[in-house]
Amino acid sequence: MGENATGVKSFKIDHRRLRPGLYSDTKAYSGRCITTIDMRLVQPNSDDNPPLSTAAMHTIEHLGANYLRSNKEWEKAIIYFGPMGCRTGFYAVLDGPHPSVEQRTRHLFLAMAKHIVEWPEDKPIPGATEEECGNYRDHDIQGAKAAMQKWLEVFDMEKEPNYYPFSYPE
Ligand SMILES: [Zn+2]
User: Does domain 18-153 have CATH number 3.30.1360.80?
Assistant: First the structure.
């Protein structure tokens, strides 16, 4: 494990054991408490559960960022939201301690997912004009909605009572 990888918890997690969920890591950076949220949509390196397309990822990035930044209660805490290069999920960086086990934090990300699921297919995607976006043709609203719907099902605890999708595997 390289020097740079030691600071971010998700790099130290055994990705063979990582399943979809909502994970978090809170650390102090220069005396400031910062939370990294790992919004894991698909199981890493799984043939049965392939990574998202770039187009679906891109649309989730636009709709997700728009939702988080226009959320009055949270807008000041949102530092960053963006895709993982492996296309298995997203990172959100929040100002302050906001562990994913907390009801308030869970609610934000699950509400964001519902917001995307409910987004009308014919409604323009925020920030996705040629003027505003670096690859405005590469969007997939149906793919984005399907991925979010599938992710929300992970939190149906009745389906699999022994699976706790809010803590990284030990
Ligand atoms: Zn874009």
Answer: yes
